[in-house]
Design brief:
Helix content of chain A: over 70%
Number of strands of chain A: 0
Number of helices of chain A: 4
Structural class of chain A: mainly alpha
Radius of gyration of chain A: 17 Å
Largest interface: A-B, 18 and 18 residues
Distance between the termini of chain A: 7 Å
Largest sheet of chain A: none
Oligomer: homodimer
């Protein structure tokens, strides 16, 4: 089994997982700190999905750290399939969540809603952009692992 | 090259393509007929993407019809890759568009906006649901063709 940059258990994968976790945490912070996001379904959805992406990415980052620094990676196709399916589902959900939040924020901004006081909507927009970045990195993880799985 | 149900140039693929086209046209009709969708970005996005899915699906349905009824299918990996990438990009875009439209519609319904007169928002919601169904079928086409491509 040859090494492939970005596949589970390599330094590349570790970097991708950290990227996902950082963008998701940033999205959560922009969305939650000192705001009342729970009055809008789309924002609740975004927070829920980002709250799922963070532990998923950190767990897989831990697996990568163990593989890279302590012992050579063990990657049976079963485990790889679970990782691929999880990445896949989370990437769809985070794309959906970020688009929903972005469109509701755009709508709020356009309608001049009283909810958008003190640049709150800008923060929501940044949170949606962070979720979108997290989706992009999740997608690249998924694609690399699918490619690797097909070559196993 | 063995036959695979749903791969490009088979009866299964033809059925999937017709499903995509029918759901996309339904979404377009629900969104456009007798409404003023263009005042909301999310709705314009949905209409644009559905307007891309319809010709894409019909073109590939034509290819399938030619393959099934007139001559055996010719599927070089290059053409298959283009089809897979096109399906892939359109599936992401249609998921994003349907989620955006659904979240804006939900928001309009919840806020009791005057735009939602005479069950207009129900129609938008149905249009978003049709786009979501179109996404599901596009995704299955993509997955089947990726699987087939990896076995070529």
């Amino acid at each position: 089994m040859e090494e492939m940059a970005g596949a589970l258990g390599t330094i590349g994968s570790l970097a991708l997982r950290f990227g996902q976790a950082i963008f998701s945490v940033a999205s959560l912070l922009f969305m939650c700190l000192n705001t009342e996001f729970y009055s809008y379904t789309a924002f609740c959805f975004l927070v829920t999905i980002m709250g799922l992406v963070v532990p998923w990415s950190l767990t897989l980052a831990l697996v990568d750290v163990l593989s890279v620094y302590f012992k050579p990676p063990i990657r049976p196709p079963g485990i790889l399939s679970i990782v691929v399916v999880g990445d896949w589902v989370l990437s769809f959900l985070s794309l959906a969540a970020s688009c929903s939040a972005a469109s509701v924020t755009g709508f709020l901004l356009a309608s001049g809603d009283s909810f958008c006081i003190e640049s709150l909507c800008i923060r929501y927009r940044v949170a949606a952009a962070m979720a979108f970045m997290s989706w992009l990195i999740l997608l690249s993880s998924t694609l690399i692992n699918i490619w690797f799985l097909s070559s196993v």
